[in-house]
UniProtKB/TrEMBL annotation:
Family from the record: Belongs to the enoyl-CoA hydratase/isomerase family.
SUPFAM superfamilies named among the record's database cross-references: ClpP/crotonase (SSF52096)
CDD domains with a match to the protein in the record: crotonase-like (cd06558)
Name of this protein: Enoyl-CoA hydratase-related protein
């Protein structure tokens, strides 16, 4: 498939998606988000890919939704676009998504980052939800995922002032996993992606889903969900291989079956 606003490559079993509208700081227009989600879904189906990595460039992961597309449109026009339906499809991706972010990570950019399962940030990243400064509010999860991630008070401060926080502060609040020098953030994210890609793929996907359930379900329901996943994985070939390899003191060869 050919795209206008993203580029796509593969490194071993890691699928790499790069947002590519550098002149306007990777502002997320409708077409870019459509392309991104189409490629995420394609990679999710591609057996050659085990982990997906999303990145931008050093200056910007993404500076938010494209304001040009919103500025002149009426409320009804924007409602009819139903533009967030495509965002909702991101949370159905079963393979892990690693985010490698640098520079501006604002508005829809922050919401996209929060759709990633693990995030490596460059120390230059500025992360925030500035929608309030435009007279609006986030629409792709900014009030919901941010609050779950950093807690009510910090989310309230970020959303009501619109001011970004530094990568280091984001790390202190658990919003990103690791902060590394700008020269290293992409390599570090790729290294991590390759490490996860070596794990048994079925276990990776079941664990991903189960961890996300922890945000949605009451504890006992979450425990029940976890247990079903545990029993399911006991039926996999990779479980046999993983345990056999342990007993034989050798490295396992996981096939995803
Ligand atoms: N949409 C459209 N264009 C954008 C953009 C956006 N979100 N962010 C930056 N740009 C464009 C600028 O208009 C500018 O274009 P020109 O060169 O053609 O003038 C170019 O990118 C470079 O930007 P600046 O000159 O402003 O660069 P700067 O370094 O001075 O400032 C910035 C950088 C602080 C990120 C500033 O550009 C900015 O505040 N951008 C808007 C951020 C924002 O409000 N994002 C939220 C959008 S709403 C949203 O995301 C809703 C949602 O929940 C889905």
């Amino acid at each position: 498939m050919s795209y206008e606003f993203i580029t796509v490559s593969i490194d071993e079993t890691v699928g790499l998606i790069t947002l590519n509208r550098p002149k306007i700081l990777n502002a997320l227009n409708l077409q870019l988000v459509d392309e991104l989600v189409a490629e995420l879904e394609r990679m999710d189906r591609d057996p050659a890919i085990r982990v997906i990595l999303i990145t931008g460039n050093e200056q910007a992961f993404a500076a938010g939704a494209d304001i040009n597309e919103m500025a002149e449109a009426s409320a009804i026009e924007i409602m009819k676009r139903n533009q967030f339906a495509v965002w909702d499809r991101m949370s159905l991706i079963s393979k892990p998504i690693i985010g490698a972010v640098s520079g501006f990570v604002l508005g829809g950019g922050c919401e996209l980052m929060m759709n990633c399962d693990i995030v490596i940030a460059s120390e230059t990243a500025q992360i925030g939800q500035p929608e309030i400064k435009l007279g609006v509010m986030p629409g792709a999860g900014g009030t919901q995922r941010l609050t779950r991630a950093v807690g009510l008070r910090k989310a309230m401060e970020m959303l009501l002032t619109g001011d970004p926080i530094s990568a280091r502060e984001a790390w202190q609040y658990g919003l990103v996993n690791r902060v590394v020098p700008v020269e290293a953030y992409l390599q570090e994210a790729l290294k991590l992606a390759k490490k996860v890609a070596k794990q048994p793929p079925l276990a990776v996907q079941v664990i991903k889903k189960s961890v996300h359930k922890a945000e949605d379900l009451p504890l006992q329901e979450g425990m029940d969900y976890e247990r079903s996943g545990f029993y399911l994985l006991l039926a996999s070939e990779d479980r046999k291989e993983g345990m056999q390899a342990f007993l034989e003191k050798r490295k396992p060869r996981f096939t995803g079956n």
